[in-house]
## 1
Amino acid sequence: MSAKATGVIGAHNAKVMNRFDLTKRLVAQLKDEAVIGGIGNANFDLWASGQRAQNFYMLGSMGLAIPIALGVAIAQPKRHVIALEGEGSVLMQLGCLATVAERAPQNLTIVIWDNGIYQITGGQPSATAAAADLVAIARGAGIANSAWAADEPDFDRLAASALKGEGPSLIAARIDNKPAVATTDRDPVQIRERFMRGLGVRNQGSGLNNQ
Amino acid sequence: MTNSQTRATTWHEIVLATLKDNDVKLIVYVPDRVFTPLIKALHADKFFTTFAATREEEALGIISGAWMGGLRGAVLMQTSGFGTIPNALASLVVPCQIPALIFVSERGTLGEFNLGQALVYKTMRPVLNSLAVENVTITRQDELAFTVDRSIKQAVATQAPVTFILSPLLTGGKVFEG
């Protein structure tokens, strides 16, 4: 196995942080932003950070957090939208980075938790453990505002900058292999309905949608 | 039937008009030769936001997010592309009860020259039926507006996806050109 790729991006210089800690730091900055939690630990730690009505927790469809977030961002251009994804999920759907760059929504931020393993399935190494650098890939796809978070204060700063709405932007963080601290309740209809109410799409109290 | 539907004279004009009448504003597609006149017309009409995704399941994710955000969307794909979406249907669209509108240009039958298309074609309806996803095959232009209009309304009212399979009998399909 080769060492992790170096180069101008600096993934090798980034501190190894903790997903739940960074998730809490991100959520602490939020007001009415929508958050799409990718399958597995990304949405488990989002769930554990506090169950906001503006959070959507994916229970399947690995790789689709960024496309779902892009759809929300197009539908609600005045609301900022954040996609939280593990690196394994992003590797499964790299094309969506090019689509995001082509659409260039100002109100979209992508956060990637990269621990170099498929943690939830037993810790098998992912391609980022060897050579792939997702910030370099995102820049190559056309998301110029892509960066590794050097440490926790840098993550806070990058997130604050991204939430100002001059996106699309992408923040990648190297994280440890600690498991998520909770597990999301698995009720897709309730999750979807609460999310839509959180986004103001439903008339409160009406059984059917108002679309 | 609305004014815009009655003015339409080709299958693609009817589909566009019916989408517009039902306030379906977001169109995400993976390109297809047969759908080209529809895609061109959608791009040219500023009522619609129309763009290509890199993969069909990505397109389904985008319109699912848009619908949750209050914007109706449809995806366009060819039959082979359908082969990429069963997981997105079974683990996102169906369990979350999202009224995804899925238009498939039917390949693999009535003169198909590509064995790969012909085999994916055989999987399409069994997959949709096993997931209990409504699917309608449209062969006649005089039934097109009614079928699409009513099925979109049913999808939204019942919070369930629907697949429109546009037959070569309607669109002319794609033939081997040597």
## 2
Amino acid sequence: MSTAVEAATRAAAQPTAARRRRLRRLVRRGPFYLLLALIFVYIVFPFYWAIRSAFTPDEDLFRTPVQYFPEHPTLGNFREVLSTSDFQRALINSTIIAGTVTAIALVVGSLAGYALGRFRFRGRSVSLYLMLSMTIFPQIAILGALYTMITRFHLYNSLRALILSDLVLVIPLTVWILTTFMRALPPDLEEAAYIDGASPFQVFYKVMLPLVAPGLVTAGLLAFITTWNEFLYALSFTQTPDKHTVTVAITTFTGKSGSTFQVPWGQIMAATVIVTLPLIVLTLILQRRILAGLTAGAVKG
Amino acid sequence: MAEIAFEDVTKVYDGGTLAVEDLTLEIEDGEFMVLVGPSGCGKTTALRMVAGLEEISEGEIRIGDRVVNELTPKERDIAMVFQNYALYPHMTVEKNLAFGLALRKLPKEEIRDRVHRAARTLEIEEFLKRKPRALSGGQRQRVAMGRAIVREPQAFLMDEPLSNLDAQLRVQMRVEIHQLQRRLGVTTIYVTHDQVEAMTMGDRVAVMSEGRLQQVDHPEVLYRKPVNEFVAGFIGSPSINLVESRLERRDGGLEVEFGEHRLAVDDQLAGNISGLERYVGKDVVVGIRPEAFEDASLGSQAPPGRRLDATCDRTEPLGSEVLAYFTVKARSILPSAEGADAVYLGEAGEEASEPLARLVARVDSRTKIAEGSPMTLAVDTSRLYFFDPTTKGAV
């Protein structure tokens, strides 16, 4: 009898108790979510603004009140930018440079990573740390030396000048990443391949290289992004618009009119979006490989 | 197929560690040789020197009639099975098996033939298209074996191939590997730390300790006639009981005394061991295998010289038999046993200064022996072992 009453009161009390608990949790977590929202806006808003401006016709750009969403969305800016021959040229230049640099950096990085990660030799850790310390220097520190080199080799105002100087920037990173990946592979695999009759080079490209594929993807993507975004060298070592990369092209952008008095913000923003797209697409495509690589490295067997 | 010979082989690592010292060992054509010993005894290093994965510091290794010291693994034409299998994770089972053959530029049809034949032998045909990660431990083990046999090499080298398997599978694979080796007749060196594997698989077993070869012989000889305390302690499970004792002559026969116990050495045994006379009145280490004991109450009355009264400290029923532990007031020899005693006796609160040895007897499962109560054990004194206390060698 008494137990039945108790059960009934408990059943009645339950909803309010549960609601109170939920409310308390919300209050406790409230500041956290607020902070999260603030950070989110802080990070994402600039991107949103670039995209918004790219789709807004020039005459609406500075109109008050501010349009957070374009009232007359247009693809005009994109059309204009893409039909500019200098920008087209810059896109091609950037693709050539970033592609070449990435390819060379991966070849050098995987070979060096194999040597540094798998073999014991005198000066191994010295070279590793020397390379790491190279990445500490700001780009500007080696600008002068690079400039001298480039003029001496008569490479000024050529894509090769940028490939050369970007490699300096990228190779320490790829070597470091691939050394880490190579080192994580169990030595038995290598030994098994030797016993199966492989030469050192066959061991490298038939066994080691496929196994560090996630590392290649990670290093390659980082190399590509670094090169694609590189600005200082591109600005310093090129002169004519036909050798400009996208980053330089955007800053010197004057639009179709060629007027230096009016900044075509809408087109610049459209150019920015176009330049960002390949990176986003690449990252999305390769994301799964990168994640797979991270977990595969963590869990053995 | 070929015989393999170590001749005065020494391995010193860069840091100065002496891993293998002066190893001389001949493995006959088609023989199954097991290298066994505790970890760090140099058995794996010895194997890796045959494989060409370690340089040989001194001495010579021959495979067939070739000295292989300076040859690459490829030129040695051997196959190796690794402890963690070392299958190529990015290749299917089929590609794993074919890898070595493809590197040797065999014609495609022959590769396919050989791979399928090996897969059939090991019953892994259905997995050929799978990657190693989709296989269980036992299946991976088979693939690793397959990769070795498909090459039809001069010799198989196996480095603890079963130690990653669970107990049941290990027993099964033990039998299979053994049968496979018998059928193929390929010279095999098998490294293990498990004396049961060594005893059951090896045509001959080489026992190693601290880089030195202790004894090499047929398994039953190692058990019956160990050359020293180490081999006696390593072969057999549970380990032999080794106790410091005194040999005396009494009533025409020989007796060993340890603690308050006295055992009469079987006359025939005493006659067979020629050097035993020299130890009369001196210290000697006596070894009694746990299986040389029996619960006296189960059999016919044993004579006094073949009986041992003790208090049972602990029993371990194993189903088919019972292990009964007891303590005697004498110095035990195996360091591992001493360590265990210290803890155990410390709890019991007995005077620790007095030497105490913990012995184990393996008795029939019908026994009524209980922990903490006195028992009488019958000892088969024709199965005693004697070792010199200083040289550690067998008398």
